[in-house]
């Protein structure tokens, strides 16, 4: 919340411009309490840095139209690496987080980072050839499961055992264009939450793909938990999965009956030719009754699984992301049955359930935003200029 005071720094003025998208000098002065001279001095620094640009004048209500200011999104780029269990997506984004280039790698994460990360570096190097001379502000890297952001590695993940404790920043240092740019690491569901929160301060993002996870935004703050393990609800024990083996090595996990990998396993045991949840989603969309049943049953199990979280957090919105977003209506039909039956009326009365706005680009865009929120933060801009 901005208040009238005359000590707003260059970084705070930049944050205001970034948050508003477009804004005039007069509006900046009104929101910060800075004098016209002080606003001009701070904007001169930002304009000289190339991070801010002047846009077409706003529509006039009489008199000379005011010039708008916005972030110069083409002043640099960030690299995004969203690692998934069956697909890793690489992207180059501008300073507004818009995707400029994309590439996919078929992931074999079980083989460990020594197998995948060199391919990631090669893929990024190819994408960067179309952006010669561009300033790389940072690299975002998202992983399924728990991460240690400070050490830059996966940490105790039940599904990334070969990655546990392996520092990932050194792999990316092989890209000469990165230089001293930071590498920012986080969980994939957290990244999706950053991309999908919109204007809401209380959002529960459910990533339903091969595995299950959640990104939690409460009071406008992304909750990571004491050990960065918030949202790992896929390995909650549920009665319906009692005795069913999970890929984590335990039994009775929600994922064992509702995760995409479990659905694929069921269909493969029936002799169906499917390799990934995306194949199942395609079958369900085409009207295959068994695929539709399994997707809806998964929704029912997930709805029951997140009902306690809805009671505890009282989100305004639940966002369905991941590959299940491709069969949103079928999945959510099952989810609503058990969610509304197990959560309180107070918590669900005005609850909105919607698919991810950015589709299969959510993780990519959120991973880029992780970097932008760090390198374009108030302290970072103040230090830069």
UniProtKB/TrEMBL annotation:
Keywords: Kinase, Transferase. PROSITE patterns: HTH_ASNC_1. The keyword Transcription regulation does not apply. GO terms for molecular function: kinase activity. SUPFAM superfamilies: Actin-like ATPase domain, Winged helix' DNA-binding domain. Belongs to the ROK (NagC/XylR) family. This is Sugar kinase.
């Amino acid at each position: 919340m901005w208040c009238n005071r005359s000590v707003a720094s260059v970084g705070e003025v930049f944050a205001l411009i970034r948050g508003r998208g477009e804004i005039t000098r007069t509006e900046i002065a009104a929101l910060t309490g800075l004098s016209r001279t002080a606003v001009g001095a701070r904007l001169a620094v930002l304009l000289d840095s190339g991070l801010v640009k002047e846009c077409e004048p706003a529509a006039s209500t009489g008199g000379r139209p005011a010039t708008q200011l916005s972030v110069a999104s083409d002043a640099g780029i960030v690299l995004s690496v969203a690692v998934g269990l069956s697909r890793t997506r690489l992207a180059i984004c501008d300073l507004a987080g818009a995707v400029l280039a994309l590439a996919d790698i078929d992931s074999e994460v079980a083989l460990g980072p020594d197998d995948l990360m060199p391919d990631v570096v090669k893929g990024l190097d190819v994408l960067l050839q179309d952006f010669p001379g561009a300033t790389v502000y940072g690299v975002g890297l998202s992983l399924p499961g728990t991460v240690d952001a400070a050490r830059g590695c996966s940490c105790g993940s039940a599904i990334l055992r070969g990655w546990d404790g392996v520092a990932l920043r050194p792999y990316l240092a092989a890209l000469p264009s990165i230089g001293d740019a930071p590498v920012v690491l986080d969980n994939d569901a957290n990244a999706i939450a950053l991309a999908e929160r919109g204007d809401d301060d209380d959002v529960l993002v459910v990533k339903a793909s091969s595995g299950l996870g959640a990104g939690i935004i409460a009071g406008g703050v992304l909750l990571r938990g004491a050990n960065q393990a918030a949202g790992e609800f896929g390995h909650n024990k549920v009665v319906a999965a009692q005795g069913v083996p999970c890929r984590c090595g335990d039994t009775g996990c929600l994922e064992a009956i509702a995760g995409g990998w479990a659905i694929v396993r069921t269909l493969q045991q029936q002799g169906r030719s499917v390799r990934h949840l995306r194949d199942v989603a395609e079958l369900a969309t085409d009207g295959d009754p068994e695929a539709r049943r399994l997707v809806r049953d998964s929704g029912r199990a997930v709805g029951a699984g997140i009902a306690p979280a809805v009671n505890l957090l009282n989100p305004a919105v639940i966002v369905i992301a991941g590959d299940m977003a491709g069969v949103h209506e079928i999945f959510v039909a099952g989810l609503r049955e058990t969610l509304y039956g197990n959560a309180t009326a107070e918590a669900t009365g005005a609850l909105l359930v919607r698919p991810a706005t950015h589709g299969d680009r959510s993780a990519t865009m959120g991973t880029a935003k992780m970097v932008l929120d760090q390198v374009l933060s108030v302290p970072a801009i103040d230090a830069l200029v």
